[in-house]
Design a protein that fits this description.
Number of strands: 5
Shape: globular
Structural class: alpha/beta
Order of helices and strands: HHHHEHEHEHEHEH
Strand order of the largest sheet: 3-2-1-4-5
Number of helices: 9
Mean pLDDT: 76
Oligomer: single chain
Length: 206
């Protein structure tokens, strides 16, 4: 049992350790974790249903899937703000999903009619939104998933995109994104937003 536990054990690193870590280091850590998971999972598969090892094996398999997704999947590359997930742009526009993406399409059309060479980057929250944005803006904007609203991830995303303006569609207000953009002296514009006084009071707590 000790071998099984040791074989699949992964000690989670504090997120702050990865603040300035290059992607190569993140990939190296994940590679070692995958190797440990595979070695441990062979033993765990021998456990009978209902035994502790079987439960740990399922958790190990889930962790392996998460690691591989984070390295190769567009969604997790964006959510972890890995290098290459976003592009430098003049305007960063954030839209949650399909409905918001279609709305900002009118804004993008107008901006490009006034400034044909403008560089636009769009972030989304959902896979459906990502597919829609890629379909609508394939030749006029780059698209990625919004990073998780953790300070160092948003800091990397803001520095990587380095926009002149951040545009947020409706009320997709993420405190750390707003804070990091503000710290970088990037103007923030809310479009098509609706907010009650009660909701405003909750947001102001941040």
């Amino acid at each position: 049992m000790q071998r099984r536990a040791e074989g699949c054990r992964i000690l989670p690193l504090p997120l702050r350790v990865l603040h300035d870590a290059p992607d190569e280091l993140i990939h190296g850590l994940a590679f070692r974790a995958r190797q440990r998971l595979r070695l441990g999972h062979r033993d765990l598969q021998r456990a009978q249903p209902g035994q502790p090892g079987n439960v740990v094996g399922q958790l190990a398999a889930q962790r392996l899937d998460q690691l591989e997704a984070a390295l190769g999947d567009d969604a997790w590359r964006g959510r972890l703000a890995l290098r290459g997930s976003s592009r430098e742009a003049d305007i960063w526009i954030h839209a949650a999903s399909v409905g918001e993406v279609r709305v900002i399409g009118y804004l993008i059309d107008y901006l490009r009619s006034q400034h044909p060479q403008i560089r636009i980057h769009v972030t989304v929250m959902t896979r459906a939104g990502f597919a829609t944005a890629n379909s609508l803006f394939e030749s006029v904007a780059t698209v990625s998933f919004m990073p998780l609203d953790i300070r160092f991830l948003q800091s990397r995303a803001v520095a990587g995109c380095n926009p002149k303006v951040l545009v947020v569609a409706e009320t997709e207000i993420w405190p750390n994104l707003i804070d990091e953009a503000s710290n970088a002296h990037i103007p923030i514009v809310l479009v098509n937003g609706r907010m009650t006084e009660r909701a405003l009071g909750r947001y102001l707590r941040f």
